[in-house]
Design brief:
With 202 residues, this protein is α/β, with parallel strands linked by helices. The protein has one domain (2-201): Class I glutamine amidotransferase (GATase) domain (Rossmann fold, 3-Layer(aba) Sandwich). It is 27% helix and 33% strand. The chain has helices at 12-21, 32-37, 49-58, 62-70, 80-83, 186-201; strands at 2-5, 26-29, 40-43, 75-78, 86-89, 95-96, 101-107, 116-121, 123-124, 139-144, 146-149, 155-161, 164-172, 175-178.
């Protein structure tokens, strides 16, 4: 069972629909008992870093997510859900993140148009199970104004946006994150979610 965390900042319907398209019923919940029974956890997110963290605190989910991470449960963050996996973010104000992945998130202070919105190619920097069905240079869909700064050790794939190397996919053990939206990325996105499903089921 995969649980999509409901913390009032997620695009829950589109993420749930994406899993349904690959033949997996995902449960949307913030219930502690349900989350503890999950074999995989998805953190979606649309909004701001401080609001996301405040909501996780308000629903008593921070310590629970840390417990599940330590238990080795696969966790996938999407967009803002990926960003809060990091140690801190600088959106609106400096805010402490979950700290599951070393690094930080800051505004994309670049020459290109912000928000970064549209299709960009994925470039792999390491082999990872999440990309087992994805080929080099396949396109995924982005919508964001802030980006993660991460070490090469934790970077799985990036995209070029003009002259900027945008962190696209990250990992730290059983914790993974996509800056892009797999649920809006057509067949490529479905293949990424299918690989996550297999990681959860194995």
């Amino acid at each position: 069972m995969i649980v999509i965390i409901d913390y009032n900042v997620g695009n829950l319907k589109s993420v749930t629909g994406a899993f349904k398209r690959i033949g997996l019923e995902a449960i949307v919940s913030r219930d502690e008992k349900v989350i503890r029974e999950a074999k995989g956890i998805v953190l979606p997110g649309v909004g701001t870093f401080p609001t996301a963290m405040k909501n996780l605190e308000r629903f008593h989910l921070v310590s629970l997510l840390k417990e599940r991470k330590e238990a080795g449960i696969p966790i996938l963050g999407i967009c803002l859900g990926m960003q809060i996996l990091f140690e801190k973010g600088y959106e609106v104000e400096e805010t402490k993140g979950l700290g599951f992945i070393p690094g930080y998130v800051s505004y994309m202070d670049i020459d290109e148009k912000i928000p970064h919105m549209g299709w960009n190619q994925l470039h792999k920097t390491q082999n990872h199970l999440l990309l087992k069905y994805v080929h080099e240079n396949e396109d995924v869909y982005f919508v964001h104004s802030y980006m993660a700064h991460v070490s090469d050790e934790n970077l799985v794939a990036y995209s070029d946006y003009g002259s900027t190397k945008v962190t696209a996919l990250v990992q730290n053990g059983n914790v993974m994150g996509c800056q892009f939206h797999p649920e809006k990325s057509g067949k490529v996105g479905q293949n990424i979610l299918r690989a996550f499903k297999e990681m959860v089921e194995c």
